[in-house]
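Task card 7
Instruction: Convert sequence to structure tokens.
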Amino acid sequence: MNLNYFLRLLSDLETRLEHSLVLDDLCGILLHHFETNFDVYIKYCSNQVYQERTLRRLKAENPAFLTAISRMEADKQCQGLDMRSFLMLPMQRVTRYPLLVYAILDRLKRGCDEYEVATKALHAANRVVGECNEGARRMERTEQLLEVDSRLVYKDPDLKKIALVSNCRYLVKRGSLVQLMERKNRNILQGKQKTRNVYIFLFSDIILVTKKKLNGTYECKDYAARRYIDVQPLEVDPNRTTNGAISSLTTRPHLFLCVFMRNARGRQTELLLNAESETDRERWLSALRPPISANPEEKIYAEWDCPQAVAVHTYNKNQDDELSLEVGDMVNILRKMPDGWFFGEKTSDGQSGWFPSSYVQQILNDHVRANNYRKRLRLIQVPGFSSF
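Output:
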């Protein structure tokens, strides 16, 4: 990180102190630097996960580096703090700027010039903190993707390898489940079955079914786009005799059916899965299902499975929470209200807001195709389930 940017802030503050011990324009100075010099600060905080990884690697691989760092950390000027503590200081300090500006704003008279400047400084400080947090979160997510990708193996030549690392993808949930596999019986809860452990990776837009190996790798067995999956809990009738794999489970079954309406091979396949507990099953179901609105007349959509529309008329927003549209703008629709208003996000720049539905026209996309698959699934009775 280029310290010159922050030496400028320090220099401006010291220059101001030379004129007066009362910093009555502190918010103005901070506002100027928030808007001009803090991009490098955001980059530094965003790369914190890489700094920590590099520090661990150097300590493990470079004895001379470890010796030098240990000697410096032992110096009394460090006050018992290690190198990692100093690397984290910028991230910790940046969160204090909004607190400082808010304390000043709280003591100013509303409507005066200083109040307006302090308000702008507070918004700028919150923006910097937000971008630092988002950058760090984005880098941490990328690190997770890299770690998973390095452990994935593909042994099936018919299974196309996924380019897992993507700026818009992140890990949602991972864990082990027991898969019950049918052996030529139409009744999935009564037929002859066998079980095997599977390890599931649920990402923001895709789900992977893998087998965990002893060497720490994961053999990919199947995958599907998240919009092409459907899940339903299954209950075992306690008054009915069960056999096969279900009867061999050591605890009460907590089953759910996960249907890949279109898997990696372009086919429909069903997985009968068992979770460790009722809570574990509910957590998986909640993670796998799209969001549902409490208002039955409102429709909400996840970013990974939402309708799209193209603007057919220009719309100029009338309020701050609305979204201006130009003809041809592509919009992801995230909410639909019964009075004809949509909430969406433009694909070009990520701007979001409300707009009238009459200004856009919905288009055919994967969300519509997945909906068609889901409607067809509801019309047929699943006779059994397939395994890889």
